[in-house]
Amino acid sequence: MTGSAPIGVDPATLPTVSVVVPIYNSERTIGRLVARISSVLATVARDHEIVLVDDGSGDGSWRVIESLAREREGVRGVRLMRNYGQHNALLAGIRSASCDVVVTLDDDLQNPPEEIPKLLDTLAEGYDVVYGDAASRQASVWRRLATRLTRWILKNVMAEEAAARASAFRAFRTQMREGFAGYRSGFVSIDVLLSWSTTRFAAVAVRHDPRELGTSNYTLTKLLVHAIDMFTGFSTLPLRLASIVGFGFTLFGIAVFAWVVGRYLVLGYSVPGFPFLASAIAIFSGAQLFAIGIIGEYLARMYVRSMGRPDSVVRSRVGFPPGVAGAARSGGDDA
User: Fold this and answer.
1) CATH fold of 11-215+312-328, please?
2) Cα separation of 117 and 96, whole Å?
3) pLDDT (0 to 100) of residue 25
4) Where do the domains of the chain lie?
5) What is the rounded average pLDDT of the residues 179-208?
6) CA distance 79 to 93
7) Phi, psi torsion values for 49, nearest 5 degrees
8) What is the mean pLDDT of residues 138-148?
């Protein structure tokens, strides 16, 4: 779908843009979202497409996507076999993108498409990934706290300051996906995968609108689970933490032993009392179980990955031109 460049701007200098949107039970908002995206990209992109990934919706979302793909040029649809999760759906859409730049945003209209030009302008300054950071988020206190925790973990996993402002509203160069082209696992974090390809991250302030319909599918529990997945699935920091805890309690044990021996040599008798002994045993046992639990978490993830579980499986596609290479990219085969 070709747009018209602003007055005084050479259309040849504008990027082609693929907007990828994970869809889950959003049949009432998809039409307005697509219309707003198309209106914005018509002036800031040389050409564009909108890739809508139906992540196992239980409503009529796929019927709406099929209808939009027939009515609007450049609208593509990818339907997954079941609900895999936001990041897995995004990965399927990213692998299906065919333009120079990929923009991702949520389907709930809280990420205003009108803010996309800000991301593209910052990307043009030489960055590879740009996040849209909402100065004021329309969410509950617990949700905001969970988001901050997730960002803190992401910052440590990615070792990037910009990760502290990471969000689902992002723009990046499509070539970044080459860094994770061979990635196949049920555990997916788009932001961590992007950090495998580049260190040029940036963030720009954007508007964050209140949700018009329904409630967020990304609950507090899901955010915490995603944070744990990032920590144990893409970082060795927990293993290092277990090593530090083990080393710390080893030093503590040596100190206790020295105290007991010193007390015996100076006073002529050992440390009396069962409570002291029981407390020391409980402390050391807890540290051991903590370390074993972390190691077990890593072993479980290695086991899951060894089974070759795909990140997603595509049921069907609509709107893709025949022979387009991007349409063949997915975490699984068409059914």
Assistant:
1) Spore Coat Polysaccharide Biosynthesis Protein SpsA; Chain A (3.90.550)
2) 22
3) 92
4) 11-215+312-328, 237-306
5) 88
6) 10
7) -140, 155
8) 62
